[in-house]
Write a structure and sequence with these properties.
Oligomer: single chain
Strand content: 25-35%
Distance between the termini: 31 Å
Radius of gyration: 17 Å
Largest sheet: 7 strands, mixed
Number of strands: 10
Structural class: alpha+beta
Helix content: 25-40%
């Protein structure tokens, strides 16, 4: 569920006035994650690596209240839930977009991830939850290693967005550089930094 809120009554009032009309309000952070635990769990339990990372992203976001608001057009919108978007290779060898509602239960999240990514792949129809949830975009470039990526400021899609490539093995550890783009109206650098730390903590604690 979503609703418009009066930005003046939120903690983002000053940021709204500063950044809503800025020519480039998007900020990008880069961080290298130690994903060794995800690689181990993925192999041991035969779970998709990207699903596990999406789950950790969702779990990291729900404790940061700024993720529940988003500038949309000229409005500030409040959401009750968070979804993770994943890009799916469809049956026509093109890409489609699939939103998965975050739930704290990993088994449930995995079931929905597998169900809806297959559905999107088979039908070539995007699954869009943006009318009910604040969506964190992701894009995995799994066939190559990348150091990071800077997205564009379209003025339309203001959602936070994470991009990563193929993880790297160094000695007995696996590392994954990611880029995180966010709208400065939605959050400040401290919030974004806490979110990235949260992701690493969730990865480390996943069992």
């Amino acid at each position: 569920m979503k609703r418009e809120v009066d930005y003046k009554q939120t903690s983002r009032a000053k940021a709204f006035e500063l950044w809503m009309k800025a020519p480039n309000p998007m900020v990008t952070f880069f961080k290298t994650l130690d994903v060794s635990n995800l690689v181990k769990i993925s192999k041991k339990k035969k779970l998709k690596f990207n699903m596990l990372l999406d789950y950790c992203i969702g779990k990291a976001a729900v404790s940061v209240k700024e993720f529940y608001i988003l500038p949309v057009g000229s409005q500030l919108i409040q959401y009750d839930s968070i979804a993770i978007n994943t890009i799916v290779k469809n049956k026509e060898n093109e890409v489609s977009s699939c939103d998965i509602l975050y739930t704290d239960n990993l088994e449930t999240f995995n079931q929905e991830y597998m169900k809806y990514t297959k559905e999107v792949s088979d039908t070539c129809q995007d699954r869009d939850l943006s009318e009910s949830s604040m969506v964190i975009g992701t894009s995995a470039i799994i066939n190559t290693e990348i150091d990071g990526a800077v997205g564009m400021n379209s003025g339309i899609f203001n959602n936070p967005f994470i991009i990563w490539g193929k993880h790297r093995k160094k000695l007995f550890r696996h590392y994954l550089p990611i880029s995180f783009q966010f709208h400065h109206t939605q959050m400040d650098g401290a919030h974004a930094g806490q979110f990235l730390e949260n992701i690493q903590n969730e990865i480390n604690s996943l069992k």
